[in-house]
C-alpha cells in the first residue's frame, strides 16, 4: 500500500529537543541526524544540558564558546545539502526563583536557541530517599507555587527562547506532573507572561512516553494558542528510537486547532 500524500494542512515536523552523549543522551550527533532524516523531519536540534555553574555535576562535559562553535559547525556540515536542517540549541537549567540560568550570555549567543527547564525546585529541600515513591515530604501547594514562580521568571529572562516542559519536574515527577489541581490563574499568568515577552512554551514528547502520563496540559496549551504563544515541539529523545517522536504531540495540537504558524521555529532565514 502506498503511503498517503502529505497534506498541506499537516503541521511541520520540528524536533527541537534531543540529547546526545555530550550530556545524558545515548546517541551521537550522527545518529540523531540519521534518524531525523529517516523520519523526514524538517528540523532537528541537539539541546544538551550545560554545566557551566556545576549545577548538574553528573554530566561529563561542560562547554566553552569555542567548543560550542565546533559543535554548531558539525551540525551544519551534517545537514549540508539535506532537506532536514540540523540546529544546535542548549537546555539550560533554571537555578533560582528569579529565573536565572546556568549558562552565560556568551553561550546563549552562540547557540541557535535556548530552552530553559526546571528539574530541581529552587527553595524546596528534597528528601531524595523518598522521591522514588512520590512521598517527598513537602507541601504540594508550596512546590507548585515555586515551580510557577521560577518558570514565569525565566520567561522574563532575555536569554531564553523556550520554556521547557512546564511543571514537569523530573526529580520529583511523580507528584508534580498533573496540572489538573493547579489554579487556572497560575496557568493564565504563565501563558500571559510568555505572550508579553515573546517566548515559546514547549510541548514535550516525554509527556506521552511516561507510564503515568501528565494531565491537564490541554488547558495550558489552549491558553497559549489563544494568546499567540508559539508552541515548541520536541521529543526529548535520549535514544535514537525516540528522535522525531512527534505523532502524539501533533495529534493533540490538531485537536486544539493549531496551525503551522502556531509552532515555534528557530530556523535561520538565510
What would your notes on this structure say?
- This protein is of the alpha/beta class and 270 residues long.
- It has a single domain, classed as TIM Barrel, CATH 3.20.20.140.
- The protein is 32% helix and 11% strand.
- The protein is built from nine helices and seven strands, in the order βαβαβαβααβαβααβα.
- It has a seven-stranded parallel beta sheet with strand order 1-2-3-4-5-6-7.
- Helix 5 packs parallel to helix 6 and helix 6 packs parallel to helix 8 (217-226).
- 44% of the residues are buried.
Please summarize what this structure is.
With 270 residues, the protein is α/β, with parallel strands linked by helices.
Labels describing this entry:
270 residues; alpha/beta; TIM Barrel; seven-stranded parallel beta sheet; 9 helices; 7 strands
Number of separate helices: 9
Output the strand order for the largest sheet: 1-2-3-4-5-6-7
Distance between the termini: 38 Å
Name the CATH homologous superfamily. Answer: Metal-dependent hydrolases
Shape: globular
**What is the structural class?**
alpha/beta
String of helices and strands: EHEHEHEHHEHEHHEH
Average pLDDT number: 84
Q: How many domains would you count in the coordinates?
A: 1
CATH class, anyone? Alpha Beta
Rg estimate, integer Å: 18 Å
From the 3D structure, determine the CATH topology.
TIM Barrel
Beta-strand fraction estimate:
5-15%
Spans of at least 5 consecutive residues whose pLDDT stays below 50 are 1-9, 52-56, 171-175
Estimated helix fraction: 25-40%
CATH 2nd-level architecture: Alpha-Beta Barrel
> How is the main sheet built?
7 strands, parallel
Number of strands: 7
Amino acid at each position: 500500500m502506498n503511503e498517503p500524500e502529505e497534506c498541506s494542512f499537516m503541521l511541520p515536523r520540528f524536533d527541537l529537543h534531543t540529547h546526545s552523549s555530550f550530556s545524558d543522551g545515548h546517541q551521537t550527533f550522527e545518529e540523531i541526524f540519521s534518524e531525523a532524516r529517516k523520519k523526514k523531519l524538517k528540523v532537528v536540534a541537539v539541546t544538551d544540558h550545560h554545566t557551566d555553574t556545576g549545577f548538574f555535576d553528573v554530566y561529563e562535559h561542560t562547554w566553552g564558546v569555542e567548543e560550542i562553535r565546533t559543535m554548531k559547525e558539525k551540525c551544519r556540515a551534517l545537514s549540508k545539502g539535506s532537506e532536514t536542517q540540523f540546529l544546535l540549541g542548549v537546555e539550560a537549567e533554571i537555578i533560582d526563583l528569579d529565573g536565572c540560568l546556568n549558562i552565560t550570555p556568551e553561550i546563549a549567543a552562540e547557540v541557535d536557541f535556548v530552552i530553559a527547564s526546571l528539574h530541581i525546585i529552587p527553595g524546596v529541600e528534597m528528601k531524595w530517599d523518598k522521591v522514588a515513591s512520590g512521598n517527598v515530604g513537602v507541601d504540594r501547594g508550596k512546590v507548585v507555587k515555586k515551580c510557577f514562580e521560577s518558570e514565569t521568571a525565566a520567561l522574563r529572562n532575555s536569554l531564553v527562547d523556550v520554556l521547557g516542559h512546564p511543571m514537569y519536574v523530573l526529580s520529583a515527577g511523580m507528584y508534580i506532573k498533573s496540572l489538573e489541581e493547579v489554579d487556572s490563574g497560575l496557568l493564565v499568568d504563565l501563558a500571559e507572561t510568555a505572550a508579553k515577552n515573546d517566548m515559546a512554551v514547549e510541548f514535550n514528547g516525554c509527556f506521552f512516553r511516561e507510564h503515568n502520563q501528565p494531565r491537564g496540559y490541554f488547558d495550558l496549551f489552549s491558553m497559549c494558542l489563544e494568546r499567540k504563544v508559539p508552541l515548541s515541539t520536541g521529543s526529548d529523545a535520549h535514544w535514537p528510537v525516540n528522535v522525531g517522536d512527534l505523532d502524539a504531540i501533533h495529534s493533540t495540537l490538531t485537536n486544539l486547532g493549531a496551525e503551522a504558524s502556531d509552532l515555534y521555529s528557530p530556523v535561520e532565514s538565510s
